TrEMBL record:
<dbReference type="GO" id="GO:0005829">
    <property type="term" value="C:cytosol"/>
</dbReference>
<feature type="domain" description="DHFR">
    <location>
        <begin position="1"/>
        <end position="159"/>
    </location>
</feature>
<dbReference type="InterPro" id="IPR012259">
    <property type="entry name" value="DHFR"/>
</dbReference>
<comment type="similarity">
    <text>Belongs to the dihydrofolate reductase family.</text>
</comment>
<dbReference type="GO" id="GO:0046452">
    <property type="term" value="P:dihydrofolate metabolic process"/>
</dbReference>
<comment type="pathway">
    <text>Cofactor biosynthesis; tetrahydrofolate biosynthesis; 5,6,7,8-tetrahydrofolate from 7,8-dihydrofolate: step 1/1.</text>
</comment>
<protein>
    <recommendedName>
        <fullName>Dihydrofolate reductase</fullName>
        <ecNumber>1.5.1.3</ecNumber>
    </recommendedName>
</protein>
<dbReference type="Pfam" id="PF00186">
    <property type="entry name" value="DHFR_1"/>
</dbReference>
<dbReference type="GO" id="GO:0006730">
    <property type="term" value="P:one-carbon metabolic process"/>
</dbReference>
<dbReference type="InterPro" id="IPR001796">
    <property type="entry name" value="DHFR_dom"/>
</dbReference>
<comment type="function">
    <text>Key enzyme in folate metabolism. Catalyzes an essential reaction for de novo glycine and purine synthesis, and for DNA precursor synthesis.</text>
</comment>
<dbReference type="GO" id="GO:0004146">
    <property type="term" value="F:dihydrofolate reductase activity"/>
</dbReference>
<dbReference type="GO" id="GO:0046654">
    <property type="term" value="P:tetrahydrofolate biosynthetic process"/>
</dbReference>
<keyword id="KW-0560">Oxidoreductase</keyword>
<keyword id="KW-0554">One-carbon metabolism</keyword>
<keyword id="KW-0521">NADP</keyword>
<dbReference type="GO" id="GO:0046655">
    <property type="term" value="P:folic acid metabolic process"/>
</dbReference>
């Protein structure tokens, strides 16, 4: 199963200047719990936004830069090649950024989205979720608190 996992605002903002524009510690924990032990597919800029590779995950980086070869990563130049590097009988996570989500959407079976209930100025956006193609099967609202400045919801979509 191919799963896109993201946090996006009401206007589908993902981030600006290769950084998230909010801080939701519970969402980071959820991301870690869901993706640990799996292959994660990302773009080069997303990979480079991490201080170091994420533990207990196989990193597949899509890049068009020749000779790009970060230690411990599999580097390919297309979504198709990234998916070929993954086991067919396991969950595979597409983790961004915006361009990679657009490339991955046609291949995806499921979307695990943290919807941040706010709008932000951004330069990277999550693709529009077409209700003709996707069904919202679960939504769990989370109220803002002293560690989370914004209300948010964990939403699960499955392809129709």
């Amino acid at each position: 199963m191919i799963i896109m996992i993201a946090a996006a605002s009401e206007n589908n903002a993902l981030g600006k200047n290769n950084e998230l524009v909010w801080h939701l510690p519970n969402d980071f924990k959820r991301f870690k719990n869901l993706t640990s032990g799996h292959h994660i597919i990302m773009g080069r800029k997303t990979f480079e936004s991490f201080p170091k590779p994420l533990p207990n995950r196989t990193h597949i980086v899509i890049s068009h830069q020749e000779n790009y070869n970060p230690e411990g990563c599999i580097v390919v130049n297309s979504m198709e090649k990234a998916l070929e590097k993954c086991p067919s009988n396991e969950a595979i996570f597409i983790i961004g950024g915006g361009e990679i989500y657009n490339l991955g959407l046609p291949f995806s079976d499921k979307i695990e989205l943290t919807r941040v209930h706010h709008t932000f100025e951004a330069d990277a956006f999550f693709p529009e979720i077409d209700p003709r193609d996707w069904e919202l099967v679960n939504s769990e609202f989370q109220s803002k608190d002293d560690k989370h400045l914004f209300d948010y919801s964990y939403q699960t979509y499955v392809r129709k």
